[in-house]
Write a structure and sequence with these properties.
With 353 residues, this protein is of the alpha/beta class. It folds into two domains: 154 residues, Glucose-6-phosphate isomerase like protein, domain 1 (Rossmann fold, 3-Layer(aba) Sandwich); 155 residues, Glucose-6-phosphate isomerase like protein, domain 1 (Rossmann fold, 3-Layer(aba) Sandwich), CATH 3.40.50.10490. The chain contains 15 helices and nine strands. Helix 4 links the parallel strand 1 and strand 2. The longest helix has 23 residues.
Amino acid sequence: MERLDDPGYITKLDKSKMRMLIGNLPDQFSMASKSFQEAKLNLKARFSSVVVAGMGGSAIGGDLVSAYLSSNLPAPVWVVRNYEVPSFVTRNTLLIAVSYSGNTEETLSAFEDGKRKRARIVCIASGGSLTEIAKSESIPFLTVPRGMPPRCAIGFLSTSILLSIGLAFDVSGLTTELEEVGDVLKKMKNVLEPDNPVKKNPAKKIAGKLAHKLPFVYSSSRMTDPVARRWSTQINENAKSLCHYSSLPELDHNEIVGWGIPREVSYASHVLFLDPGNLSEKLRRRLAVTKEIISQMAEVESLTASGTGNLARLFSLVFLGDYVSFYLAMLNGVDPTPIERIDLLKKRLKEGH
């Protein structure tokens, strides 16, 4: 754990400055909001559904927005991670094609499928083929800053998706909620950044508990489901470590039975329950009982969101998880930025064409 308080060790290992990219998240929401206003999109239409097409770090923003809007949007928001959009897509569907690079194979294919089905389309990218096609065909598009791993652009991408849907459905209050996200995350940054020592830094403490363990990240509500997924993928990509995620109440109908076998796996696991801080009484009771049962076979703890609005609550847990994944990478002795196996996979797939 001492290594987490050693600036020289962190600087040497974090060659691409992932710590700075994570720390920039609080500013992304206001920057993306300004860019959205300058784009002056026209999305006046009657939509019956929304589909967000993307992969990896470009798709998780759609999951977060879908969870946030699930209780106050009159249409479903589907996130598609595939080569095609659903069969229900028509001219009454708002299709948001998201590819940070602009060259994601699956997203470009889904984009073309959506065009064939006559969906109303908005493209979000930092450049690449998606932006070029959108320009040439006069399809509305939003540009996000380039030069970072897609997973580090989550604030830019999420805000662009959220404001596009908000404009299409005339959702009120988004500006206030986005401002709160920035404020809450800036306060958290002071506590979570590398300069703050282990004894005062919750992200470093959690990473220490996860070191040499198999992390399980459990969501306690519909709203935190995509946050659990984000924690898992960040631990995968940044810490180069396996991680499992699931959600209540579903896991109480199957996964809970699996705890204990293999014994050595259960006792080498650490379970994190994500609590948005505003659970219903039914879910709060379920969370408490589930924790009590699993604690007989593994280490467990709850992490509670910060903020007043639901959007701030969501991103406070995202921000904490991003820092935890970074410190876990430091403890694992790996540079968090490279994703060599994904790069190898893409290379091998290209060779097969």
